Amino acid sequence: MENPYLPIIMRVQRVFVETEDGMQKSLDLAFTRPSDEAAFHFMPGQFCEISVFGKGEAPLGIASSPTERGGTLRFTVNKAGLVTQALHQLKEGDEVGLRGPLGNAYPLDLFENHSVIIIGGGFAFTTLRSLLVYMLEPEQRGRFGEISVIYGARTPGLLLYKEELERWEARTDVCMHLTVDTEFPGWTKRVGFVPTVLKEVAPSPENTYAVMCGPPAMIRFTLPVLDELGFPRERVYTSLERRMKCGIGKCGRCNVGPLYVCKDGPIFNYAELEGLPREY
Ligand SMILES: Cc1cc2nc3c(=O)[nH]c(=O)nc-3n(C[C@H](O)[C@H](O)[C@H](O)COP(=O)(O)OP(=O)(O)OC[C@H]3O[C@@H](n4cnc5c(N)ncnc54)[C@H](O)[C@@H]3O)c2cc1C
Ligand code: FES
Fold it and tell me: Within 6 Å (CB) of ligand 1, which residues are found?
């Protein structure tokens, strides 16, 4: 039996700074063994445990989409503490460990033939990027109805994936609403918090799924707006973040009530979370 705690070895292929304050970097990690690459199958929403040898392990959502081939996986890392700081210091050619893919994925089968509104805030856009890239892939796009995105950050420089945001804005098959908290020199797009923009955009709840990921305050104020708009909570999905250790449902570090975020999640709909302790 394979040891689930044993990481595979990945090599850092590319490191780039995402935000102007340098707190978020993306790392493209390349498989070092073709057999590992062949065995690795994931879907948007899943995460991996990434280890920096001698420092420790951290769970990170997979920011790339399974439709992006090329032998690498992308992770976008917010510098928070010991492990994420060590990840920020890595250089091209360095090696890290990876366990995964772990957890569940966005329920793309349910989204089929429905419209999808993606709502993101700050640096939590990572697995939302994976989802969006996947749904916009020519082979996949026809499965879904209207796709729209509301994505906000405090300032323009703190938005992730800036070049891609521009490319997505230029497309006619996705409706992008980018926003920053306050007026900013040179910013000609929306100004306002994500929940306010959601109110303005007022997507119809008919036949639509909402997918949300962002800081707790954004989630707290966005959920009531979705309620007001009439979105049933079964059709509102979010990704939970908990402290984790094993990532595979063994250590009990990540539970919310009876649910293990690492194995039952990290993706849940709000109907599933209702009645659970508000630890998330
Ligand atoms: C399923 C999942 C997906 C995630 N995806 C990403 C991602 O794509 N990019 C990213 O940058 N981060 C992501 N995180 C959060 C990331 O795992 C933590 O920031 C990281 O583990 C911190 O490790 P550290 O050793 O650097 O910090 P530590 O020294 O352990 O902690 C530093 C600070 O971060 C807080 N913290 C630690 N772990 C978490 C956590 N899980 N949730 C919230 N706060 C935490 C601590 O309370 C402390 O304040 C994800 C977490 C989960 C559970
Ligand atoms: S992290 Fe160990 S049970 Fe979830």
Answer: 47, 56, 58-61, 76-78, 80-85, 126, 241-244, 266
